[in-house]
Amino acid sequence: MKAAVFKGAGNGPTLVIENRPDPVPEAGEVLIKVSRAGICGSDLHLTSGHGLQLPLDSIIGHEFCGEVVALGAGVDSIKLGDRVAPMPYVGCGKCPACFAGQPHHCPQARFDIVHGFSEYSRVGVRDCVVLPAGLSDEEGALIEPLAVGLQGVRKATLPIGARVLITGAGPIGLATAFWAQRLGASKVAVMAASSRRRDIAQAVGATHFIAQKEVADPGAAIQEALGGAPDVVFEAVGLPGAIAQAIDYVKPLGTVVSLGFLGEPDSFVPVAALTKELRLLFSMCYDKQDFQYTADVMAAGDHRPRAMITGTINLDALPEKFETLRGASADCKVMVTPWNH
């Protein structure tokens, strides 16, 4: 099969398309023919040469869906031809984390065998959801990032009528805006450095958009947009200083949820959070019910998240396109099809 393989940063192409042996599903696994895969910001971070990095020769891509083309031993809950969206982990299936639908917390979790930037991938039968009829491949590949936003909003225990600020207008920030608006927030402001994703943010559910570089006082602009300080701030920037900024913006007794992917040291002044008596939470992932609910919501007719998709490329074009996304880009979510048709 063809696959995009990580060759390291700074010494030629970061990703190289190679031919690799077709995977064979083991017991409790299925093999899927990948239909669509999304490029994630964490893919870029983990191949940048800075902070936490993936092992060399990894096949990457964790936002994807595909068709089941082979079954491992003991699989009877999924059948050939089913279209599925997998969580990018394969758990043991026997521990409390796996029973809770959280294989990423399984002590024996495998992170190296599930990959979307390839023609085929093994996935755990317990760790994927069958796509409802009518859900497109593009929407199937959006389930993973949307589930990240859903889990963050669930962790915040968002009160009905809440004022919400999301810092960062990447796909995770936009997914969070979608769920915050859908799950009870009265006002949802997205703040980003520039206004280039204003239209996308408003399409998915943001009631306000603040271009930070275009206002003299971002804190005042936030309060004007929301009618007061936010009850909840979701940090989806993933840069040094972003958590400290969120603490500054949130109201006393409010909640800050960090969703940003930052693989280097950061700092904030604890007394700033202490005096506000706020809750500071971190949310990286999701559980299986987040995947299922996300699929069901889109299948029921809420297709607003598709506004995040700004392009589709084939696998051969991925290495070059991948590098263009490291800086400021008009793209939001770029989809990859491993098959050149």
From TrEMBL:
Alphabetical UniProt keywords: Metal-binding, Oxidoreductase, Zinc
Name of the protein in question: Alcohol dehydrogenase
Natural source organism: Denitratisoma oestradiolicum
A UniProt-annotated Pfam family: ADH_N
Coiled-coil ranges per UniProt: none
GO MF annotations in UniProt: oxidoreductase activity; zinc ion binding
Lineage: Bacteria, Pseudomonadati, Pseudomonadota, Betaproteobacteria, Nitrosomonadales
Keyword Zinc appears in the UniProt entry: yes
Highest taxon, organism lineage: Bacteria
Membership in a protein family: Belongs to the zinc-containing alcohol dehydrogenase family.
UniProt xrefs under Gene3D superfamilies: Medium-chain alcohol dehydrogenases, catalytic domain (3.90.180.10), NAD(P)-binding Rossmann-like Domain (3.40.50.720)
Domain Alcohol dehydrogenase-like C-terminal, residue spans: 171-298
InterPro entries reported for this sequence: ADH-like_C, ADH-like_N, ADH_Zn_CS, GroES-like_sf, NAD(P)-bd_dom_sf
Ranges for domain Alcohol dehydrogenase-like N-terminal: 27-132
Named cofactor requirement(s): Zn(2+)
